[in-house]
Amino acid sequence: MAPDQRNTSKPAFAHARAQGRGQHGDGGRKPARQRGDELPPGEGWIWGRHAVLAALANPRRVPLSLHVTRNSAKELDDAARARIAPQTEDPAQISARLPDTAVHQGFALKAKALEAEPVQAVLDPTHGLLVVLDQITDPHNVGAIFRSAAAFGARAIIMQDRKSPPIFGTVCKSAVGCAEKVGHVEVTNIADTLKSFREEGRYVIGLAGEAETSLADAVQTGADTMGRTTGLVLVLGSEDKGLRPRVADHCDVLARIPMGPKAESLNVSNAAAVALYEASKHDPRINPGS
User: Rounded to the nearest 5 degrees, what angle is found at the Cα of 238, between the Cα atoms of 14 and 172?
Assistant: First the structure.
């Protein structure tokens, strides 16, 4: 990395912070969650139509109990019913099982956590585009990044094991089912993981608002001799502080998303979508003519 790029840790979205959230999408207060319904480690709730149906269609997700309204039960196909028998309840009963902010749309699934893939499964550059989240903790943002990763063909999302939100609840609802379709890897040390990626021949791009290199130029540089970008790694920092210095130091290059003067920043999930789209321009699965 060029010396003037080191320790440039402002996010490409210029210190974008997690966006404020409203209380409820349906405008009504929900019953408080029953405290007797606390779950043991490794289990959690998934709610929302798309999130629950995707979880039931995912053979890697182990369902424990399924709670649906009478109308929602009509949307369960034979494969979903074969995995677990639904319990029909009224909306208030389902709401009482969930956090106050949950908007369940008549679907709630108690399930086991998805198993993380080992980092060795995604080391090789031919294994596909990766997204690394450096201390991104807002579950809405993480869910939205899973959705963009699925849309633009990312192989997996790399998350820190101690700092990341669990792949349940708000993450799954915000991902609109895509948390079940993109693999995830949990690591202890992000910087050391980036070092391993580079040693295997991957090209690591960190998003930073004050970087001199544009994202498009960085992606073009990281493409292989045939123009493919499957070996790229896109690294995004936290909503308030951006990339940590040691993480930035382990990127091949820091890149910025060019922006006009009317907007100072992008939310981190928006920045991820832009970066993934830029990388997907060179992916023949997304753009067959590339």
Answer: 120
